[in-house]
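Allow me, if you will, to draw on your knowledge of protein folds for a short while. Thank you for your consideration; the sequence and its tokens are set out here:
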Amino acid sequence: ATFTEVPKDVTVREGDDIEMPCAFRASGSTSYSLEIQWWYLKEPARELAHELAISVPGSRSKVTNTDATKISTVRVQGNDISHRLRLSGVRRQDEGVYECRVADYSDDETQEHKAQALLRVLSRFAKPDVQAAEAVSHIQSGAAPRRHGPAA
């Protein structure tokens, strides 16, 4: 069982429309019951993973639930499932991690698979990223490192 399409990190301007793909294929020839859910996590994935790791196992679900909001659910019988998340007129508060969760009910034990993507929302009037990238490379190629002695 594997994702055939996963969402990618994306940066958009306020007011833009976006689509995040998520598609999954179950292995084997038997008919499956698959469910796909889109969740919105306020915290970036790394922080969330860290929080999960340090919390005791019993409170694990609590941590996830307080930080996550379910957006939509699609359920199918079969081996393939896909569900594109569409956001129109994106706002700054939509920024965050979007997680596609696929639950595979085919076996006695439910398998859950996850894929995440980060949505960044720039204000309408933000300068293009290109200039920022050039500025950074200019700073890095400057003489600053020599003043600090050899790099470790």
